């Protein structure tokens, strides 16, 4: 359980390089089997495994949403490709992959192609920072939370670049809405995170989870969690905050002009960001991979138990998001921004004050003064 | 951002059909709108002049693809007046029942499309699911789900099949329960009220000035319903209330349509009770000889038949799901109508778009236009 993904991939790289080196002449063997080469290949293997795992999870997430939405809507969702439609998303992906990537004549070539690609890449990079279980990645990064949120907030820039370079009025309006929305909701998200940081005393996601070993933060920091989840809904552009791609008035908003693989990039990235949002919520408020002490130890000590519980929590959070999507209409831009600036920011400030109060009252990290909710 | 014109249509998710709404915007603000119609013009009025009286009914189904039955009814009422034909009473009740089922079908379809415009995906599928029951009923006695070709000048084509009344009652009970569900999904949601309250307001005077009819007019507080004010078919023998609201905004139109569906169920139940106990013919016995036949008698016989048949003018006005539809049929003594003219309620409702769209935001256009319930088939004909 404690073997980190990086150490596993480094070991794998070491076996590979030693194997290859043994059939090569000595100088090459020495060059291949020194520490630097093994580390470099190890990081590469780490990245490939992470990429494959996150992509598979994203696709599974889309499948789960389709099935769940289907049930909410009194239908069955994807059924025909694979068992219970499990391979439907692969079929859709291959369809998009086979299609031509058409660029409008007056679109800016650079921005049109770089925008979606950068949007996808910057979102995927965050998976390397988020820990899934103990010592998952390279170790305890001291500022991993800050780094993850920073990369997470690159998105409006790339969305706006792709919208603007499409040279389409719908795209431009959608891109502006998107940028305004994301920037407006960055602030409450960051302030909600400050509450977590005050209580845990660290920016390191590993340490934040370890602090929650005995006590999940959703109880004492309930207000911060509400603000964070609502802000994340806006950041992920899901109903009720999906107006940048409001299909009724803007014809899919900022990705109107995209087709084929470029469109697939956008759709995929949307779900990658949803997955990231769920991960962050689990890490910050739902105790990450830890489980309460009343859970039988047999349930938490099997191999990869940490990853299992982490993913279970993440999918549970996502289920709530799908539930919200199935039951709420979409708000309007000005209403969204008003909620963001006039309600969310004051609420997040209140949550900071509450968190500071908790620390001053010496409730943290002992929480002796509060009933035990999660740990 | 500077002012610019954008086209919402002819291929646009907002339009629900083939028409174009040109919108002048400044940022998110709507400064001017210009609805353009005519993309779906098929010349139905002109084609009708070349068809036998009963063949025009086929075209009426194509007038409005969600309310074919109402348009058939509109035409046969005018044609009967022009040809001096009196339909039997049972046919009148069947027509009323079909009209009201069609109203429910059309309004449920409207509900599905409207909630989808404001981003609610789930009720869209609920609406389509429940509309299917109505279509199943239509299929059971007309054989078709969209283009029924059921009504005839002088009655209806065939009687109801055995067991139909029980099935129809079941559907009514089911629908009444679902209307509660619809309201819960929309009216209990704060976001729904944020999106719909106070939008696209038309007061009573503005509605009357622009010839707006139907649910839009009633939502502004005017209790005008042709089924009450100028009863046709069997409506004077049935009990129902005129749904109305005061606010004249999108929510008011929603409320009016929901209440209309409940009243429709009420009317259907009464007509089913009547139909159950009053068997009889459904097609008039004394029809002009050339009307029922696929081809008119030719030669001297046909000539005399037609020459001796009295000429006439027919006018009818019915409360269609979208508003007041009028028809005018001129019988000059031949097997074809000399002239057929229709008045589409949606055309007037959409033409006033400048009145209820300017000053709102781009994001308000889908809910407002959705609340108008546009059916392009009847606008362009």
Write the layout of secondary structure elements.
The complex is a heterodimer of chains A (375) and B (381).
Chain A: H1 5-22, H2 26-32, H3 35-72, H4 88-98, H5 109-125, H6 144-152, H7 155-165, H8 169-200, H9 205-211, H10 222-235, H11 247-250, H12 260-285, H13 297-300, H14 305-327, H15 333-360
Chain B: E1 3-8, E2 20-26, E3 29-36, H1 44-48, H2 56-63, H3 68-83, H4 89-117, H5 122-142, E4 151-152, E5 155-156, H6 164-187, H7 190-196, H8 204-209, H9 215-218, H10 226-229, H11 250-277, H12 289-292, H13 299-308, E6 312-320, E7 323-331, E8 339-343, H14 345-351, H15 353-357, H16 365-372, H17 376-380
Antiparallel strand pairs in B: 1-2, 2-3, 4-5, 6-7, 7-8
Helix pairs in contact in B: 2-3, 3-4, 4-5, 4-11, 4-16, 5-6, 6-11, 11-16
Protein model, in words:
The complex is a heterodimer of chains A (375) and B (381). Chain A has helices spanning 5-22, 26-32, 35-72, 88-98, 109-125, 144-152, 155-165, 169-200, 205-211, 222-235, 247-250, 260-285, 297-300, 305-327, 333-360. Chain A has a domain at 106-360. Chain A has 15 helices and no strands. Chain B has helices spanning 44-48, 56-63, 68-83, 89-117, 122-142, 164-187, 190-196, 204-209, 215-218, 226-229, 250-277, 289-292, 299-308, 345-351, 353-357, 365-372, 376-380, and strands at residues 3-8, 20-26, 29-36, 151-152, 155-156, 312-320, 323-331, 339-343. Classes of the chains: A mainly alpha (375), B alpha+beta (381). At the A-B interface, helix 8, helix 11, helix 14 and helix 15 of A face strand 1, helix 4, helix 5 and helix 7 of B.
């Amino acid at each position: 359980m404690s073997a980190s993904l990086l150490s596993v991939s480094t070991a794998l790289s070491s076996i590979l390089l030693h194997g290859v080196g043994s059939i090569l002449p000595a100088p090459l063997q020495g060059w291949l089997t020194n520490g630097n080469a093994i580390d470099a290949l190890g990081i590469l293997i780490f990245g490939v495994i992470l990429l494959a795992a996150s992509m598979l999870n994203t696709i599974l997430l889309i499948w789960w949403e389709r099935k769940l939405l289907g049930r909410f809507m009194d239908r069955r969702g994807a059924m025909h490709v694979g068992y219970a439609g499990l391979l439907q998303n692969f079929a859709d992906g291959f369809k998009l992959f086979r299609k031509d990537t058409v660029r409008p004549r007056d679109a800016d070539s650079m921005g049109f192609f770089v925008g979606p690609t950068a949007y996808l890449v910057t979102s995927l990079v965050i998976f390397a920072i988020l820990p899934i279980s103990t010592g998952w990645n390279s170790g305890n990064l001291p500022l991993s939370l800050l780094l993850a949120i920073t990369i997470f907030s690159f998105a409006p820039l790339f969305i706006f670049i792709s919208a603007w370079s499409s040279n389409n009025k719908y795209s431009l309006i959608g891109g502006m809405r998107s940028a305004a929305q994301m920037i407006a909701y960055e602030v409450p998200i960051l302030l909600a995170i400050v509450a977590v940081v005050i209580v845990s005393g660290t920016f390191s996601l590993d340490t934040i989870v370890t602090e929650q070993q005995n006590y999940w933060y959703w109880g004492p920091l309930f207000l911060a969690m509400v603000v964070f989840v609502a802000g994340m809904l806006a950041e992920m552009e899901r109903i009720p905050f999906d107006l940048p791609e409001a299909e009724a008035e803007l014809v899919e908003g900022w990705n109107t002009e995209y087709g084929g693989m470029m469109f697939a990039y956008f759709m995929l990235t949307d779900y990658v960001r949803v997955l990231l949002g769920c991960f962050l919520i689990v890490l910050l408020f739902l105790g990450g991979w830890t489980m309460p002490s009343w859970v039988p130890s047999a349930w938490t000590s099997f191999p990869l138990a940490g990853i299992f519980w982490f993913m279970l929590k993440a999918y549970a959070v996502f289920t709530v998001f799908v539930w919200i999507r199935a039951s709420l209409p979409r708000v309007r831009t000005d209403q969204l921004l008003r909620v963001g600036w006039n309600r969310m920011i004051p609420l997040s400030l209140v949550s900071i004050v509450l968190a500071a109060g908790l620390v001053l009252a010496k409730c943290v990290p002992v929480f002796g003064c509060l009933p035990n909710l999660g740990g | 951002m500077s002012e610019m014109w954008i086209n919402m249509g002819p291929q646009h998710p907002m339009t629900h059909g083939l028409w174009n709404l040109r919108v002048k915007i400044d940022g998110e603000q709507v400064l001017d709108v210009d609805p353009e119609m005519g993309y779906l013009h098929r010349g139905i009025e002109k084609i009708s002049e070349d068809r036998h009286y009963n063949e025009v009914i086929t075209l009426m189904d194509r007038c409005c693809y969600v309310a074919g039955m109402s348009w058939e009814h509109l035409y046969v009422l005018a044609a009967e007046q022009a040809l001096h034909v009196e339909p039997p009473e049972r046919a009148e009740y069947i027509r009323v029942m079909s009209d009201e089922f069609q109203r429910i079908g059309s309004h449920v379809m409207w509900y599905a499309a409207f909630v989808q415009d404001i981003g609610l995906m789930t009720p869209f599928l609920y609406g389509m699911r429940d509309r299917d029951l109505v279509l199943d009923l239509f299929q059971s006695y007309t054989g078709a789900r969209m283009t029924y070709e059921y009504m005839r000048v002088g009655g209806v084509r065939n009687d109801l099949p055995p067991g139909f009344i029980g099935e129809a009652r079941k559907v009514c009970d089911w629908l009444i329960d679902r209307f509660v569900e619809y309201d819960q999904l929309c009216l209990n949601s704060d976001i729904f009220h944020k999106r719909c309250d106070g939008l696209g307001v038309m007061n009573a005077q503005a509605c009357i000035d622009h010839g707006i009819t139907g649910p839009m007019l009633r939502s502004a507080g005017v209790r005008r319903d042709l089924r009450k004010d100028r009863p046709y078919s069997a409506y004077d023998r049935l009990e129902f209330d005129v749904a109305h609201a005061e606010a004249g905004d999108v929510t008011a139109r929603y409320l009016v349509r929901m209440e209309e569906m409940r009243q429709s169920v009420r009317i259907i139940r009464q007509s089913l009770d009547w139909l159950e106990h009053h068997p009889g013919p459904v097609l008039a016995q004394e029809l002009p000889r050339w009307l029922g036949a696929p081809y008119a008698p030719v030669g001297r016989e046909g000539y005399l038949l037609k020459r001796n048949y009295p000429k006439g003018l027919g006018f009818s006005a019915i409360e269609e799901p979208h508003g007041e539809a009028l028809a005018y049929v001129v019988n000059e003594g031949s097997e074809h109508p000399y002239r057929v003219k229709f008045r589409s309620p949606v055309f007037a409702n959409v033409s006033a778009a400048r009145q209820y769209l300017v000053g709102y935001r781009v994001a308000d256009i889908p809910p407002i236009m959705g609340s108008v319930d546009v059916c392009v088939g009847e606008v362009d004909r």
